[in-house]
Structures are given as structure tokens and as C-alpha cells.
Design goal:
Layout (H helix, E strand, L loop, with lengths): L2 E3 L13 H6 L9 E3 L6 H7 L5 H12 L5 H9 L13 E5 L2 E5 L9 H18 L3 E7 L4 H9 L5 E8 L5 H8 L6 E6 L3 H13 L1 H9 L2 E5 L5 H20 L9 E6 L4 H11 L4 E8 L4 H8 L1 E3 L21 H24 L1 E3 L2 H10 E5 L2 H13 L6 H13 L6 E5 L7 H9 L6 H12 L5 H6 L8 E3 L4 H8 L1
Parallel strand pairs: 4-14, 5-6, 5-8, 6-7, 7-15, 9-10, 9-14, 10-13
Antiparallel strand pairs: 1-2, 3-4, 11-12
Helix pairs in contact: 3-4, 3-10, 4-5, 5-6, 5-10, 10-11, 15-16, 15-17, 17-18
The structure holds pyridoxal-5'-phosphate (PLP).
The site of pyridoxal-5'-phosphate (PLP) has 18 residues, from helix 11.
């Protein structure tokens, strides 16, 4: 399977590249992204075949259908990391919360958020490609809070890889920040930026594009790559859990194969939703993909009105910070899939130049045949958290956005799989506030009060963070990022 470019080819790059190449250099011609030339068609046969498979068995079969240029033993090693999740026999439990609503819990990995789903195996794959080519890589990651810890965790002490991770100072929760700044492996560098997530992501994109930066790294025999959700090496692992979650409903006797469901995804950079879209194209019976947002509701307006418009928007800090994103990078892959490279290039350059683009009414119709969307504000989110808790389910504020979107968008009497992207421990002050009304609690106090309220123990790895030594203390202006990274490598 080869990969092609969302904005067409500029004549200086190959027309198509291997999976490993798309992983190592994720930015394509004209600033575009790599996408599979053709998705495998799995159909219902694949679902039938895997009703009784383990997560790893099904995942392996799906990866093999992609025909990627990664050795099978590396893929086995990568998938084995799911054994370290809470329940090694089922890394992604799917829980019934109420009539027609099921929550697929993607947060049972080492950093307690869904980024582990893709980044855990991705670390093994990338490090193995680097070793095989006898090259050293600097991985850049920009994080709004969850990617950073997950990227650091997966690359910690891995051969031939260094990581520089940018996060917006003050834009993450205490737990997320501590998960990063207490990482002490010598191949990891964590950098706080005075700015928001989009600043961090823009800085990352411009470094990835900078020939002078790359030339300086080359002097030290280092090549550059990125671990953000634009990397197809992450996306491929995000198709798997959508198929798994559907199969879980089959196993639970809730749907029979072929019956359609809604997928309901709390969205930021659209990697999770894109995984669902690809799963659907590969044959998963999906009625619609429901896109949930917070007050940064660019995606809601895009899907409902066909206008991607940032002209009057600036990032709003919300209680679901992992979704505080305006430029949702993976939407580009949907545009490409639906409208082709020429149109994608046109739309993306409109976005770059005018901060907006508008779909034609036919294009909007095509988007709406797959997606519906709504957004949920912080107060509504807290009310959903409290309501769910009272009926026995504890969830985080990102997951809560799905509950609102489900009420407004799941109009048919069929089942919804909503995705839970973080454990309660990662966003505890908001949850404590929703449950008990207490305000301005520090994470540690909020964790204790939720623990008491819900009669749940705080996981050891979370408690330990508060006493661990802080070994990453850079907080800098965004102008100084390049210098800071060069002095690290
Ligand atoms: C990253 C993240 C999201 C957004 O996922 P995307 O794939 O970027 O759309 C939602 N919730 C949490 C907790 C996250 O960490």
C-alpha cells in the first residue's frame, strides 16, 4: 500500500511513498498530508471473522490488510503494548450507559487518555524504522495536554529517537503537566510555551518546514519527524478501536453484524473522527459520525453550515482543553477523500490566506451524508457529568460533550458508540465541581474528593506524580523554540 498527497504533487517529491516514508516525513507537497492510495475493503466478512478474536488478533489482521512495509514481528511487538492496559484481554471496554448509548473507553493505557491508543504502538514502529535505516530522529510533538505525556511515554529510552515536546504553559491540567515535566529520560525534552496550543502547533509546523532548521539538525546526523495526529502512523492505529467497539456490541448481543450504529467522537484535531471515517469506508456499518465539540465550535459550524471560518475566532479556554483547537488538521484528509487533491489544495490555501473557506452546497451535502455535529458548553458538560454520575457512570468533560451531541444528533432509534477519551483523573477539578460544587480545587484535592464521592481509588501512577521530582523546567517565548531545541539535541 502506498500513500499519496492531499494537495497534489509539487514535482520535487515522489508521487507516492511507502508507509514508513509517510511516517518519517509526514508533511507532503504544498504543506499537505499523506493518505492511503486506496483503503482496504474489509466488509462484513472481516467483522464475521473477528467476532471472537482478541483486540490484538483483529488489529493484526487489519494492519496486514493495509499491506504496509513494516515487518510482522515489529507489528506484534507494537500491538503487545496493549497488554499493559488495565485489562490485557480487553484494552478498550465498551460500557452501556443508557438505552442506545454505549461508551467505548479509550483511556485505559499508561497516561490515562486516548492518545495512548495510537502512540503506544506508534513508538515501537517508528523506533524500529529508524534503527533499520540506521538513522537518528528528532520527533517534534505539540500538545494541548494528552499527546505530550503519551508521546514521551512511548519514546522514553527508545533507540534512535529523541523527542522535543511543546505544550502551552497554563493550557494543560496539573496532572498532564506533571506527567510531562517529571519525565527524566535523556532522550526527552519538554518545553512550555508562552502561548496557546495553536501557537505550539504552528511553531511545530514551521520547524518541520524549515530548511535551515533541518540543515542544522543534519550537521548532527539527525532527521526530523512529528508525532502529531497528522502522522498516518497514528491514524492507522485509530481505525482499529472503532472496529473493535462495534464488535464489542456484537459480542454483547446489542447489535447484529450489518446493523448500523452512530459513532460519536469528542473532536479536536479530528484524528479520532478520521479513524472512524476510514473504518466506515472500509465497511463498518455506520449511520453517521457525530462530531462533538466544546465552545471552540468551528467544526460544528463547518458541518452544519459548510463554512470553515476562523476570521472571528480565537481559541477559548474550556473545561475540555484537549479540544481547544481551531485548525483541525485531519479535516484535510476528509476533504481530499471526498473532493480530491485540487479542491483540497484550493480550500486549504483559502484557509491559509483568508482564514476561511466555504463549501459548495453539493460539497456540504456530501459532508452531511457522513457527519453531524453539535457543541457543548462547560455548564452543559458539567450537568451531563452529574447526571451520568447519578445513574452510575463517571466521565470526564471531553466525554461529556458527546452526551449533548448524542441528544441533538442521534435522531434514529439505533445504538450510539460514544468515545471516552480521558479518565476522570486527568480533569478532576471540573469533575469535582460538577459533582460537589466545589470550585478552584487543585487537581490533588479534586482527585481526593471525587475518589471519596465515587468510592474509587486514585490510581497509583497519578498519586505518584505529585511527589516526583520535576526535571523539565523550560518555559520560553515562542520565538526561542528553535534555539531551545537545538541546544537540547
Ligand atoms: C486528543 C484528545 C481529543 C481530541 O481528539 P482528536 O483526535 O484530536 O480529535 C479529545 N479528548 C481528549 C481527552 C484528547 O486527549
Amino acid at each position: 500500500m502506498n500513500f499519496i498527497e492531499t494537495r497534489g504533487n509539487d514535482g520535487s517529491r515522489p508521487y507516492n511513498v511507502s508507509f514508513s516514508q509517510a511516517i518519517l516525513s509526514p508533511i507532503a507537497s504544498f504543506g499537505g498530508l499523506y493518505v492511503p492510495l486506496k483503503l482496504p475493503d474489509l466488509g462484513e466478512v472481516f467483522l464475521q471473522k473477528h467476532v471472537n478474536s482478541s483486540y490484538k488478533e483483529m488489529a493484526m489482521d487489519m494492519l496486514l490488510c493495509f499491506g504496509i512495509d513494516i515487518d510482522k514481528d515489529v507489528l506484534y511487538e507494537a500491538l503487545d503494548l496493549y497488554d499493559n492496559f488495565d485489562d490485557s484481554s480487553n484494552p478498550v471496554p465498551v460500557v452501556k450507559v443508557k438505552e442506545n448509548l454505549f461508551v467505548s473507553e479509550l483511556y485505559h493505557g499508561p497516561t490515562r487518555a486516548f492518545k495512548d491508543m495510537a502512540l503506544q504502538p506508534f513508538g515501537v514502529v517508528l523506533s524500529s524504522i529508524a534503527q533499520k535505516r540506521n538513522q537518528n530522529y528528532l520527533i517534534l510533538a505539540a500538545t494541548s495536554g494528552d499527546t505530550g505525556p503519551a508521546a514521551l511515554e512511548t519514546f522514553k529510552n527508545r533507540a534512535n529517537v529523541q523527542v522535543a515536546c511543546l505544550y502551552p504553559d497554563g493550557g494543560t491540567s496539573d496532572v498532564q503537566r506533571l506527567q510531562m515535566v517529571t519525565e527524566d529520560a535523556s532522550n526527552l525534552k519538554v518545553i512550555g510555551i508562552k502561548g496557546d496550543f495553536d501557537d505550539a502547533q504552528n511553531a511545530l509546523k514551521s520547524l518541520l518546514d524549515s530548511d535551515t532548521f533541518k540543515a542544522k539538525l543534519k550537521e548532527d546526523h539527525i532527521s526530523l519527524s512529528a508525532a502529531n495526529s497528522v502522522n498516518f502512523g497514528r491514524i492507522i492505529f485509530q481505525i482499529i478501536y472503532h472496529i473493535h467497539s462495534y464488535l464489542e456490541l456484537v459480542r454483547q448481543g446489542e447489535v447484529s453484524i450489518g446493523e448500523k450504529v452512530y459513532l460519536n467522537v469528542p473532536s479536536g484535531n479530528f484524528g479520532n473522527a478520521l479513524g472512524g471515517y476510514y473504518a466506515m469506508k472500509m465497511g463498518l456499518p455506520v449511520e453517521k459520525i457525530i462530531i462533538a465539540s466544546n465552545e471552540n465550535n468551528v467544526l460544528t459550524r463547518f458541518i452544519n453550515e459548510g463554512k470553515y471560518d476562523l476570521r472571528k475566532s480565537s481559541v477559548i479556554s474550556t473545561t475540555s482543553p484537549a479540544m481547544d483547537i481551531l485548525k483541525s488538521s485531519n479535516v484535510e484528509r476528509i476533504l481530499f477523500d471526498m473532493f480530491g487533491a485540487r479542491r483540497t489544495k484550493e480550500l486549504m490555501s483559502n484557509l491559509q490566506e483568508n482564514n476561511s473557506y466555504v463549501l459548495s452546497s453539493d460539497e456540504l451535502y456530501t459532508i452531511q451524508s457522513v457527519f453531524s455535529a453539535d457543541f457543548c458548553n462547560g455548564e452543559e458538560g458539567k450537568a451531563y457529568i452529574k447526571e451520568a454520575f447519578e445513574s452510575g457512570y463517571l466521565m470526564d468533560p471531553h466525554t461529556a460533550t458527546c452526551f449533548k451531541a448524542n441528544e441533538t444528533c442521534a435522531t434514529k432509534n439505533i445504538k450510539t458508540i460514544a468515545y471516552s477519551t480521558a479518565e476522570w483523573t486527568k480533569f478532576s477539578p471540573t469533575i469535582a465541581n460538577a459533582l460537589t460544587g466545589e470550585v478552584d480545587a487543585q487537581d490533588i484535592d479534586a482527585l481526593k474528593s471525587i475518589s471519596k464521592e465515587a468510592k474509587l481509588a486514585i490510581p497509583d501512577m497519578i498519586t505518584a506524580l505529585f511527589t516526583k521530582e520535576i526535571c523539565q523546567d523550560s518555559i520560553i517565548n515562542k520565538e526561542d523554540i528553535e534555539k531551545e531545541i537545538l541546544s537540547f539535541v
